[in-house]
Amino acid sequence: MKPLALFGGTFDPIHLGHLSVAWEASELLDAEVRLMPASVPPHRSSPTASAEQRVEMLRAALRGQSRLLLDTRELDRSGPSYTIDTLHEFRQEFGARPLVLLLGADAFAGLRSWHRWRELFDVTHIGVLNRPGVDACVPGELERAVAPRRTDDPAVIGAQPAGRVIELAVTPLEISATRIRELLAAGRDPRYLLPAGLFDDPALLAPYRETSLH
Ligand code: ATP
Questions:
Q1: Which of 16, 79, 82, 131 is the most buried (most CB within 10 A)?
Q2: Which residues touch 157 (CB under 8 Å, ≥6 apart)?
Q3: Residue 38 maps to a domain
């Protein structure tokens, strides 16, 4: 059975960095990928766009292909969503199917701040996506925990449900949502950093443009 890869984030807004690395991860792992927007991210400030607005942008961005799918379960829950709880839910739903949590290198380096982080390996594999501008250095405690789990063979990921860590050599793209929000707030038009679908309806990017007026 193909692995199921989960790519969580605030997606405030979804950008071509997210889409490109998720697409390449899907190819490298031969996995179905679900993009999973977070409602109230436990370890960061509130998103600029509402949950509904971020979902609308994701829908517009994902239109026309079927390799990357949207999963809104964390938004459908009230309160903060902890990844470990979401993963247990997936495990219940999908039995022994391999699960892969996709994390950008920056998110992976901060894993120790996550709720019950060591438990993640019981439920999922982790796929680390390289990201330019991110210090590749992994904190010692984290590296000690992941060293025995590392593999560079996608077949190993497909052969067991959880517990391994794989670095996925995706094309580096130095795009961040922070930079895009700054450009939009400054009245700029970062057309080729964002999926074309986000420009079909002017309402989609309005939450970021309006921030410059307040
Ligand atoms: P912000 O600038 O608001 O922090 P972001 O661009 O990092 O946003 P998030 O929604 O926070 O986007 O990221 C979701 C996931 O996507 C994280 O695991 C993050 O590391 C990863 N990610 C985002 N952009 C890239 C990129 N250009 N290359 C690789 N991974 C990325």
A1: 131
A2: 3, 29, 98, 100, 125, 127, 151, 164, 166
A3: yes
Q: What is the ipTM of this complex?
A: 0.98
The total number of structural domains in the chain stands at 1
Q: Residue 11: CB within 6 Å of ligand 1? A: yes
Answer whether residue 57 is part of any domain: yes
* Probe residue for ligand 1, chosen from 48, 53, 129 as the CB with the greatest number of ligand atoms within 8 Å: 129
Give pLDDT, residue 148: 98
Return mean pLDDT, the chain.
94
> Cα(7) to centroid of ligand 1, in Å?
10
200 C-alpha vs ligand 1 centroid, how far in Å?
A: 23
Residue 185 within any structural domain of the chain: no
Nearest atom within ligand 1 for CA of residue 47 = 3
Instruction: Kindly indicate the confidence band of residue 105, based on its pLDDT and cuts at 50, 70 and 90.
Output: very high
- In terms of residue numbers, what domain contains 155? 4-174
Whichever domain contains 128, its CATH number is 3.40.50.620
What separation in Å is there between the alpha carbon of 80 and the centre of ligand 1? 19
Give the whole-angstrom CA distance, residue 18 versus residue 1.
Answer: 25
pLDDT of residue 80: 78
Q: Look at residue 59 and tell me if it is in a domain.
A: yes
Tokens of 205: 């990017």
- d(Cα 70, Cα 58) in Å, to the nearest integer? 7
